[in-house]
Amino acid sequence: MSTTTTTATPLTIQDAEALVTAARRAAEAAGVTVSVTVLDAGGHLLAFRRDDRAVLISGETSTRKAYTALQLDAPTADLVDVVQPGGLFHTLPTALDRPLLFIAGGVPVHRGGRLIGAIGVGGGAPEQDHAFATAAVEALA
């Protein structure tokens, strides 16, 4: 019996910096100041950048969005409805002692079909943050 293992190259610091740069460029083009967080597959911080004009809380929200996208392997934009009353994960935000945040702006990063990290963007409207994070992931591919 043979077993095949597929490996994916982990997210590197160069990848993380490229993600931050792409997200910030997308935000700057839209005239929005943001914070950007990139986590590796283990949830460890690889890169963080807060525009000096971005609201201070955007640093925390970008990190929590990245963490949530990583832990659930889904864009946070896709999770907003499932934590509303009556939703599948309604109690999840309060059931865990973890920094989850169900606001659009967190996107998982995959390579070779494997989850290798996540990016979170905070500072704009949720839809803008999601667009900036998505643009960064697409630029990395």
Furnish the topology, listing elements before pairings:
Blueprint: H1 13-29, E1 35-40, E2 45-50, H2 57-72, H3 92-95, E3 106-111, E4 114-122, H4 126-140
Antiparallel strand pairs: 1-2, 1-4, 3-4
Helix pairs in contact: 1-4
How would you describe this protein?
With 141 residues, the chain is α+β, with helices and mostly antiparallel strands. The chain has one domain (13-140): Haem-degrading domain (Beta-Lactamase, 2-Layer Sandwich). Helix content is 37%, strand content 19%. The chain has helices spanning 13-29, 57-72, 92-95, 126-140; strands spanning 35-40, 45-50, 106-111, 114-122. The chain has a four-stranded antiparallel sheet with strand order 2-1-4-3. Strand 1 and strand 2 (45-50) form a beta hairpin. Helix 1 packs across helix 4. The longest helix is centred in the first third of the chain and has 17 residues, at 13-29.
